[in-house]
């Protein structure tokens, strides 16, 4: 099973991905986590992407595509991948389709979490206090939201046309949202 958790920054993708890991034993593939780990380690890749990530812009497609491809065997062995924050552009989505097809696999479902903008800002501010992420400040957040609207939202028709898009109400408690995601996944 390969599922994509889709939505703007702060919509709860990471939290819900972790829920699915605990529930179903699948593997969370978060390009944001991978990039933050690279930055924290001070690797060459980390140095290359730090300013881009801190500013809230998207890193080049080929970087995240490579990070994801490296992790596909592990997810396959676990029986499922939860893509969290990937793909974010149409080029990434096409590369993911190609990489999965090579392995005789495909994207099974795209879960779009619907959260209103006021709530997104509130969640970002809460996380800023708890985790201290460099891109959890209002300026970087605005850039991230704009990147979502301009570059990532065009993926919605891409997946809707394939009949894979499922919309889930993302407001409310973590448990309620998890239950809605579970129901949407079991629908098929
Ligand atoms: P996230 O944790 O998913 O919000 O990602 C944090 C930051 O990492 C984003 O604002 C981007 O700078 C970068 N990033 C994460 N995933 C991607 C992706 N799929 N494509 C491009 N940039 C990404």
Explain briefly what this protein structure is.
This protein has 188 residues and is an alpha/beta fold. It has helices at 13-24, 31-41, 44-55, 61-78, 90-102, 117-131, 138-152, 155-161, 174-186; strands spanning 2-6, 27-30, 81-84, 109-114, 165-169. Helix 1 (13-24) packs across helix 9, helix 2 packs across helix 3 and helix 4 (61-78) packs parallel to helix 5.
Q: What does this entry look like structurally?
A:
Helix content is 62%, strand content 13%. It contains 9 helices and 5 strands; from the N terminus they run βαβαααβαβαααβα. A 5-stranded parallel beta sheet has the order 2-3-1-4-5. The chain starts with a strand and ends with a helix. It binds adenosine monophosphate. Adenosine monophosphate binds at residues 9, 31-32, 35, 52-53, 56-59, 64, 85-88, 92, 135, 144.
Strand order of the largest sheet: 2-3-1-4-5
What is the percent of helical residues?
55-70%
Q: How far from one another are the termini?
A: 12 Å
Largest sheet: 5 strands, parallel
- What is the number of E strands? 5
Structural class: alpha/beta
Strand content range: 5-15%
- Gyration radius over CA: 16 Å
Give the ligands present.
adenosine monophosphate
Would you tell me the overall average pLDDT?
96
N-to-C SSE series? EHEHHHEHEHHHEH
What spatial form do the alpha-carbon principal axes imply? globular
Name the poorly predicted regions: none
**Total DSSP helices:** 9
Secondary structure layout plus pairing:
Blueprint: E1 2-6, H1 13-24, E2 27-30, H2 31-41, H3 44-55, H4 61-78, E3 81-84, H5 90-102, E4 109-114, H6 117-131, H7 138-152, H8 155-161, E5 165-169, H9 174-186
Parallel strand pairs: 1-3, 1-4, 2-3, 4-5
Adenosine monophosphate (AMP) is lined by residues 9, 31-32, 35, 52-53, 56-59, 64, 85-88, 92, 135, 144.
